[in-house]
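Protocol step 4 of 6: record predicted structures for both targets in the notebook before any analysis. Target 1:
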Amino acid sequence: MLLNEIVEANQFAWDIVMAIGTTHREPPRTPKPVPRMKPAATELTPLHVRRAREKQSHRGGTGTRGANTAMPSCGHVQS
């Protein structure tokens, strides 16, 4: 009895597949990623200039820290 129900369900599914029809289409593909564009070189704004100057002063350039400044910590050493 259980086997008969399985056969009927299988036939029912097969009929649905045949009713839809077999179409030969390509399997779905993952779309290709869009190439990343580097931002265009922008002109230096006063904020960029100020930030660059601040970075220079923190690296030990001439300026506000004095002659006997401490070396930067090992975690933030830049070459």
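Target 2:
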Amino acid sequence: MTDAATSPAPAPVTSGSPAGSPTTPDPRDDGRGTHGTGDGTPVAHGTGGGDAEALLVVGVGASTGVPAAEVFELVESALREAGRSVRDLAALATVDVRAGEPGLVEAARRLGVPMVTYSARQLAGVAVPHPSDAPFAALGTTSVAEAAALIGGGELVVPKRRSAGTPARATCAVACRPGLPALPDAPAGTAHALPNHAGEPETDAPRRPP
């Protein structure tokens, strides 16, 4: 399996609105990663070497200060378990208050995929097999990793698992999302945020990752 030095060349991490900035929900948003430019026009992915109609999305929950290497290794391990590779990955998805988390941004760069964010309210509407009270207390959603992977439809191919850190500072889950909409290109180091709900608080996540 590849490591950070041999992984695919980084693709830009994409941006819609700044992390946590209140915006009016777009009624056209179906929760599947349409970009935040407001025109609803899909543009091409710069990544994903597998079936263009059924790409993988990795949902990631993380604690503040999570190292990029811990996230990268966790995602690689989960993909390996599914019999897939980073070439099949279309996006790294997480909660919007983590859009600027350096470890997640860098992990997405190493994986060569855009980072897509969803509000806690959007994630709370997704049924998941392994809900948790910890993220609900902090964010108002019982799941980040599985919900971010599954939002918009698809099949969970790797359920939530924790990283090998002591303590574990990241969780991830992998879903196969058919017909994944394309994401926009944007300067590296920014995040693509789906429409947030006005007034939703930017509550920090607990030390135990969701």
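Step 5 preliminary note on target 2. The helical segments are 68-81, 102-111, 120-124, 133-139, 145-150. The two ends are 26 Å apart (CA to CA).
Proceed to step 6 after PI sign-off.
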